[in-house]
Predict the structure.
Amino acid sequence: MLCDNPFNEFILRGLRQTGATVDVVERIAAASRDTRYDAIVVALRPRNIPVVSAADAQLISRNWPGAVVGQFWGDIDRVALDDLNVPLWPEKAPGAGHMGILPSGIGPESVIRLQAGGLKVGELLLSGTTPDDAHDCLQSMDGVEDDHA
């Protein structure tokens, strides 16, 4: 799985619950060449350029023939992957910057946490809480310790 964001734990848990063995890297070049991957799940933050490039498509085609590229989040060079006969899912490309699979597709927890976080931000902004207090509160909701003093 290619992942560089907080969806990591939810996707990873869901995949492992189905019996999958999962390696996580932030770029395809860091993936093990010695491992046979059946699928490559792309869950990378969108950027101004594809998160899976034509060069990445060549690495996938050469090192993991037959592996399906699943586009959860992050734009990919679908033309390059298609030209190399790399199977893609979903078949229809999501719009630029849009998710290929909605967060609800990996279970309710990520959606509930996202909505709860949004409500908490609204509460903090309306209460006059300082930005540092709001940051600390949201980090604690995510289970992150942060001493940015």
